[in-house]
């Protein structure tokens, strides 16, 4: 499986940090969706989607990456204590 970033404005694929390509074969493979999403947030790339592309399969799965503000640790649902 390849994990790619695609620009939603022009549908180009990220080839390198400052280069986009219309060719899916030239796209950088992030290896996993966490790395791809982290890259987008670190570099403020939006609007984009992470594309999961399986070799030999006629379909792919797209995950929109929404730009937004990070929540601080106390407001994050993951940091709340349940009891």
Give the ordered list of helices and strands.
EEEHEE
> Could you tell me the number of beta strands?
5
Strand order of the largest sheet: 1-4-5
| Through-space gap between termini | 40 Å
What's the main sheet like? 3 strands, antiparallel
Assess the beta-strand content as a share of residues: 25-35%
Helix vs. strand class:
mainly beta
Q: Mean of the pLDDT scores?
A: 85
Question: Can you put this structure into words, describing what you see?
Answer:
The protein has one helix at about 35-40, and strands spanning about 1-5, 15, 20, 50-55, 60-65. It contains one helix and five strands, in the order βββαββ. With about 80 residues, it is mostly beta strands. Mean pLDDT is about 85; it is low at about 70-83. The strands form two sheets. The protein has a three-stranded antiparallel sheet, covered by helices on one side. A two-stranded antiparallel ribbon has the order 2-3. The chain is globular, with a radius of gyration of 15 Å.
Key descriptive features of the protein:
83 residues, mainly beta, three-stranded antiparallel β-sheet, two-stranded antiparallel ribbon, globular, disordered C terminus
Question: How would you briefly describe this protein structure?
Answer:
By secondary structure, this protein is mainly beta. The protein is built from one helix and five strands; from the N terminus they run E-E-E-H-E-E.
Question: Which secondary structure elements does this structure contain, and how are they paired or packed?
Answer:
Elements: E1 2-7, E2 13-16, E3 19-21, H1 33-42, E4 48-53, E5 60-65
Antiparallel strand pairs: 1-4, 2-3, 4-5
